[in-house]
Each structure stands twice: as C-alpha cells, then as structure tokens.
Amino acid sequence: MTENILEVRDLVKHYPVTRGVVFKKTIGHVKAVDGVSFDLKAGETLGVVGESGCGKSTLSRVLMNLEKPTAGSVAFKGQDISKLSGGALRRLRRQIQLVMQDPYTSLNPRMTVGDLVGEPFEIHSEVAPKGSRRDKVKELLDLVGLNPEHINRYPHQFSGGQRQRIGIARALALRPEVIICDEPVSALDVSIQAQVMNLLEKLQREFGLSYVFIAHDLSVVRHLSDRVAVMYLGKIVEIGTEDEIYERPTHPYTQALLSAVPVPDPTLRENKTIIRLSGDVPSPISPPSGCRFRTRCWKAQDICAEQPPLLEIRQGSDHPSACHFAEKREIVATHEV
Amino acid sequence: MSDILVSEQSAPGADGSGRPSGRLLEVDDLRVEFRTRDGVAKVINGVTYHVDAGETLAVLGESGSGKSVTAQTIMGILDMPPGFVTGGQVRFHGKDMLKMSAEERRRIRGEGIAMIFQDSLSALNPVFTVGFQIAEQFRIRRGMSRADAKKRAIEMLDQVKIPNAKGRFNNFPHQFSGGMRQRAMIAMSLALDPEVLIADEPTTALDVTVQAQIMDLLGELQRERRMGMILITHDLGVVADVADRIAVMYAGRIVEEADVYDLYAKPAHPYTLGLLDSIPRLDEKGQQLRTIKGLPPNLMNIPPGCPFNPRCAMAQPVCREKLPPLLQIGAGRASACHFAEELVNRD
After folding, report:
1. Which end of chain B is more exposed for a tag (fewer CB within 10 A), N or C?
2. What is d(CA A228, CA A225) in angstroms, rounded to the nearest whole number?
3. In chain B, which among 271-290 make CB contacts under 8 A with chain A?
4. Contact (CB<8Å) B292/A201
5. What is the residue range of B51's domain?
6. Average confidence score pLDDT of chain B
C-alpha cells in the first residue's frame, strides 16, 4: 500500500448566485462541487471524467487552492491546504502544479518562453538561483521535447501542441509531486494529442509524479489513468480502477457515458448498443432531490427521489458506486475478433 | 503540374470518362489560396470529391487541412479576400456553381445545399428568437404568411425533437442548451428541404451523451429525406459510426479516399495509418501510443514532393521530389502515396 499524497474529504464548493447591484441578495447557490472524496496515491494517475458542468474544473481549482472550499478538506501529505496561508502556502504551492486546457490563452503573449517557464523561479528562488535559471529553463524545454534554442521566442511562434509543452515545462519547473491536468489535450489535434499524452506518461515515469487527470474524453482518460472517478452534477457517482470502471461499470450514468463514446471501428457499428439518455444535465443551482441522475435514468424508482444514494461498494460489485440499483451490464464494446 | 492533372482524371469520383456524371455534388480539382500580408497560404491544392443522394461522405482531417475551407467554398461563404479560388469547379447537378451569379447561388443555398456549423452559439443570431430565425426562411423563400411560417417552424422544431416546440419558439439562442441549439440549427438548415447537407464538426462542442443524440437525429433525418451528407470532422470515432465513404485531407489535398470499412481495416496512406494508430481507444487499455512525429506543414511553405514526407516513417528519396497523385488503387479506393500498394498489401 503506497501512501496517499492527496486526501480529499467531503469537498464542497458553492458559488452564490446574486441579484441586484447595490443591495446584493443571494438567491441561490451553484453547487459546483457537492461532497467529493477521494485519495490520490503517490505515483498514480487518477482520471476524473464527466460532462461539461459536472464540476471537474472547479474541483481542479479547489485542489490547487485557487478557490477556498465551502466545506470539506484537501490534505496534501496530511496537511490541510485550505487552512494554510503566507509562507506555508507558498511552500506548498511548489508541490502541486497545474497544466491548463487552452494553450492559446494560458500563456502571456508578451512574455518569451524563457520568461514563462522561468517565472516560477522568481517566486521560488530557492529552487534555482538567479545565475542558473536560463540553463534550468533550457533543460526543461529539452525535457518536454522543445528546442532549447527557442528560449527567446514568443508563444505565437509555436503551434498548439508546442504551447501545451511549454505549459507542461512551466508546471514541471518547481519539481512538484502532484500535477493537476485540466483537459490538457482536448484542444489539440489527434496526431499532436498522442505526442503530448506520451510526454505526460514519460514524465510521470521519470519523476514519479502523481496526476489528477481531468478530461471529458473517456478514451484519453482510460489510456492514462490507473483509477477513474466519474462525476455528475458535482458528485462522484462511481470510482474504481480503470478496469473496474471501463469493463465492469455499475452506475447507469457511467454505463450510458461509455456506451455513447464512438469507437473508431466501423465493424462494431451493428452490434453496439448505445444507451440513449434523454434530455440535458439539470441545473446545478437546483439539482434533483435524492439521486441527481434520476431525471435521466431509466432505472429510477421512488426511492431515487427520496434518498441520495451513497458512494459505497454494493453487493455483486467490487468498487464504490452511488446507485441504489447498481449492477453490472454488458455494454462496453469489447475487442473480440 | 502535370501529375496533378493525372490525379484529377484518375480520382475515384470522376471514374474516368463521362461528364456530366449525374452526380449530386462534385468538387473538382478545387484550389483556394489565402493572400495575406505575410504571404500566400495555399489552403486547398486540388481537392476532388463528390457526394450522392442518401450517402454520407466523411471529410476527415486535422486543423488547417482545408476541410472547412472546402465546405465554405461550396457554400459560397468563403471570405474573399483574403480567400481566392484559383482553380477547379464545384458542380451541383452538373452545373458549376463558381460561375453562377450571386442570385443563382443564393437560390441553391438552403434549398439545394445547406450547412450546419460547429459553434451553434455564434452561428445563430443572438438578437432574434430561434423561432423567428427558422420562420424567416419560409416567409422569404416560400412567401408564406407570418402565421403559416410560424406553424411550419414549430413543425421543424418538433421534427428535431425539441420538447415543447411551441413554447420554445419565442426563446432566444442563449436560452437553449448546447445540444438544443444544435438541434435548432439542424431545424433551420433542413427547413427548405435541401438535397445536400454539409455538417461542419456538428458535435465537436458537445458532450458525448448529447453527441450521440445529435448524430442519431442527423442519421434519421438523412435517411428520411435521402439527403447527401458531407460530414466534416476530425473524430475517427464518429466517422466509424456514420460514414459510408471517407476522404482524408492533409495540407489541402485528399490523401486517401475509401469505403469506411476498407479505410479502417487497411489504410492506404501513411497519414491515415498514423492517425488510426495515435488515437487511444476506449475498448483497449493502451500501451505507449504510436504518434506521427512533427507538425503539419506551414501552408505558406509546403514542402516539395509529398507534403507529408517530413513526418512520414516510410519516406523515400522519391517522396521528397515528386508529388504523389491521387491514384485509384482498387474499387472506390484512391491514395496519394507512392507506396500505397505496399502499404495495403503488407500484413
């Protein structure tokens, strides 16, 4: 059993919805993240999947301590990060870094690559003393597969994939232990996406990094993750190893999600059953009572409206699932020949 | 230049001789360039494809491959300048649309060929209601009264399965969710019953469960109306689900054209092969992904010979010198690679 590097417990993040300008009145809350718990072990990749609006990006912001949680805790090696401030917080920030989705807007267009990647050293000067910074930056560029000679170029001189590499180099600069990847490859073309995914894997092996890998693309998540958490409307509905989630999903939402992913193989066209979900994701301001998925679920009973199902291991299953009627179902297009 | 002419005649769409071929929509050796301050970008360099009634042609390619510009040229909505059509034809029922007057083209738009776009929020006019934008077509093109047009528009909204179509008629685009907006846009594009529908990345901005709904809907409507559909996408998964034929584009050219089953089973161009190898699959826990090294070429400076040669694992000296024409290599299959035969016949 390896140690837990991150422990997230009952994490809640609500954003107030206000009306009025001078006399602001809170008329409700967007329940972006509403009671999320999981552990991240050292050296593993936890994939977080879900559709837009399920709270996965808010989760990343709270994990980074860019937002204070409304309730609950995030502990890095046993230390609650939301309670830290000042120097202690700054020291902690070195350990958790973020790779952002959009390589076009996340890099300051007026800074050179050298400045962008070297900026973390300004704040954490203990990592690289002033004289050695340029060499350090060149080393980082080389590490992520960019030409170190390009250190004086500006972001617009690079392609999308290269910019994402700059973002990764910047995240690596302080030698963090945890990197949170928020949709790091979704803005990239297929051929480039594979290059960046391979790079992330290589870096993980080399530095023993732990990743929280947030994405909406289930195939990408499966490829990179050891364990996977499926989110729906601010809650984790199912969590387990990559194998448990993809081969033996028990939550209806996971099953529907997996069945809807197009598989690049035309021969599977006929013998594929897709579970059609009707309607859209409800508003996170007023999520349905009980189970949040019940409004789109084909299994919904009265109990689903009354009792929110707990995320727990149920009979006949080997991993936690938040459904009163969790059961296995053959849905994943298996690779029989 | 001579080898390009060869490619035109031997492309599977033209099938050699007889013209007019009776095809619904044909793009024939189309060439488009963008003249900018920094130089001339050759965006489309001889694209030939066709689509017939009731079939789905998927145009597959990465950003900058020219797949959307081709569609914009077909629709006549290319920004000119900076875009210039420097050669080729776009024939609808055998008539070259590029030679038509603006008025003639306008009549084809909507009734002959319609298009749906990726980003439904920016494709719909935010200051008019969704219902108005659909009904407008019936009033202007069909001369219907306000009341009749409204009735038809509600029918359209109903057909694309928007719940409570009547109540939704007076909603503005921002009041719709992403999936609903895409449905509204489908309703709008199908209002005048077009013969060809161009769908430019119709589901890229949507979540998977919604994507499945929209692709279903499109398939259903296409079968009902026997429309020809050009599906422009970069998603090899979606293509495998719905396409009949596939044209793969790279650097403004078609590099491979094939039936969907053939293409996935035995790609005949190293680029197609590379794409198929580099996608992670849902049904397989992958090892290291195989990648295509390098980047797509700068369209202002396309490498001599085969544009894919700097990234190609199979590249030989000939690839750096001679542009491989798109040659037929089997029934309904064509590849623009000097080594297509070897690629298909390997095991």
Report:
1. C
2. 7
3. 274-276, 278-286, 288-290
4. no
5. 2-112+192-345
6. 85
A8-18 pLDDT tens trace: 999 999 988 88
- What pLDDT shows up at residue B347? 62
Q: Provide the domain count of chain B.
A: 2
8 Å CB contact of B240 and A263: yes
Do B108 and B121 share a domain, yes or no? no
Contacts of A263 in chain B (CB under 8 A): 237, 240-241, 281-283
From B191, B208, B241, give the residue that closes a domain. B191
- Tokens for A31, please give them: 């329940």
Residues B154 and B32 in one domain: no
DSSP labels for A146-164? --GGGGG--GGGS-HHHHH
pLDDT recorded at residue A9: 92
pLDDT of residue B1: 38
Instruction: Indicate if B171 and B203 belong to the same structural domain.
Output: no
Select the more confidently predicted residue: A98 or B177: A98
Model confidence at B15: pLDDT above 80: no
At residue B113 the predicted structure's pLDDT band, cuts being 50, 70 and 90, is very high
CB B179 within 8 A of CB B213: yes
Q: How far is B62 from chain A (nearest CA, A)?
A: 6
**Are residues B123 and B93 part of one domain?**
no
Angle of CA points B187, B189, B195, to nearest 5°: 120
Q: B residues 35-94 near A, CB within 8 Å?
A: 62-63
**pLDDT by residue (tens digit) across B54-74?**
899 999 988 888 888 999 999
C-alpha neighbours within 13 Å on the C-beta side of residue B322: 12
Q: What is the dihedral of CA A51, A52, A58, A64, to 10 degrees?
A: 70
B214 lies in the same domain as B106: yes
- Whether A42 has its CB under 8 Å from any CB of chain B: the answer is no
Q: Which residues contact A305 (CB under 8 A, 6 or more apart)?
A: A288, A289, A290, A291, A294
Q: Cβ of A300 under 8 Å from any chain B Cβ?
A: no
Residue B286 binned pLDDT confidence (cut-offs 50, 70, 90) = low
Q: What is the pLDDT of residues B231-260, one digit of tens each?
A: 998 888 888 888 999 999 999 999 999 999
Of the residues B158, B191, B224, the one at which a domain ends: B191
- Could you tell me the CATH number of the domain that includes residue B64? 3.40.50.300
Write down the residue that tokens 């970008």 correspond to. Answer: B41
* Cα B271 from Cα B308, distance rounded (Å): 7
Verify whether the Cβ–Cβ distance A246 to B282 is below 8 Å. yes
Tokens of A265: 């193989």
Helix H segments across B226-311? 236-242, 260-265, 270-278
In A, residues 180-209, which contact B (CB 8 Å cutoff)? 189-195, 197-198, 201
- B154 and B197 both lie in a single domain: no
Asked if B209 lies within 8 A of A218 by C-beta distance, the reply is no
Burial class for B65, CB neighbours closer than 10 Å (0-12, 13-18, 19+):
buried
Q: Which parts of B61-163 are beta strand (E)?
A: 83-92, 95-96, 113-116
Residues B64 and B182 in one domain: no
Q: Are residues B7 and B77 in the same domain?
A: yes
CA-based nearest residue in chain B for residue A264 = B237
- From chain A residues 216-245, the ones with a CB under 8 A of any chain B CB are 216, 218-220, 222-223, 242-243
